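#struct-help
A.M.: can someone run this one for me? Single chain, 267 residues.
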Amino acid sequence: MTMTLSQDDISSSDNIVWRARHRYAWDEDPPGDTITGSLRLLAGAKVVASQDTGIGHLASLLNAPQVVIYPQRGDERRALVLRDGLRVPMRFDDMHRWNSSLCLPAWGSPEQVLAIIAEALSARVLPGPIDPWKARPVTEVPGRQPVEVVVIREPDRSLILRPAGNDLIETAPLADRPPQLSTADITARIATCQACPDYHAATDRCQRCNCTAMLAQRTRTRFARCPAGRWPADHLAVDGWTVGKAAEPQPQQPNSPQPSSRARSAR
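D.P.: on it. C-alpha cells below:
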C-alpha cells in the first residue's frame, strides 16, 4: 500500500494524530494497465510509505521521498525468513542508492513508524560527507528551521540529525546468510518434485501449495519443506523457525556384541 501524505495529514503533539489519505497504488491503474497509475501516484506523493516491495523500488527509481517499513531495526540489512520458508535478502541498500531524494527505514510500534513518517514530511536533505557531522548537533546546520529534521546523505548511508541526538543509518548488507544446500540435496529434491503427482511441469508449479517457480526457488533453500512431506527441510532453527530433521542412523553402542569374522564371511 502506498500512502500519499501532505503536511496537513499529520499533527504532532504528545501523540501523533494520523489522518492519512491512503490508497492502493494499483487502484490508480486503468483497465489492462498495471503500472501507469502507480507511477503517477508515486510521483505525486509528498512521502511514500511502503514495505520492502516493488512499490518501494518504484518510488526509489522516481526519486520520491520514501520511508520503508521493517519489523525491527537491522532487518533492512539482512535476509529474513518469510512465511513460506524462503529466506529473502532485503534490498534497502538498492533503494537508498537509487533514490537521490530521501530514503529512510522505519521500525517499531505504529506510533514510532508514524513519527518517522512525520519527520520525513519536513526533512531537509543535504549531500554528504557525513563524518564531520556525526558528533555535531542539528542546531549547527546553517539556515535550519525549528521544525526541520536534517538528513545528510551519502549513496550508502544517511545521518539523521535530531534535537534528541543523531542517528546513523547504514545500508550495507550484513553477512549473516546461512550456507546453501549441496548440489546433491537440490538434485534429490528436484527429482522428488518431478515425480510427484502434485507437480505441474508446464508451469513449474506445485499444485498442492500453488507456489510458482517450485524448482527455481523452494528446492534450493535450506528452510523450505515439501507441503506434502515428501522431502524435509534441513535441521536448522533460524529466526524462530524450527524445521524438521531427517532420521539419521544411530551409532553403535560400544558394548554391543560385534559379529565374528566367521559370521561376516558366511554372509
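A.M.: thanks! The chain has two domains: 2-170, 183-237.
D.P.: also worth noting: The radius of gyration is 26 Å.
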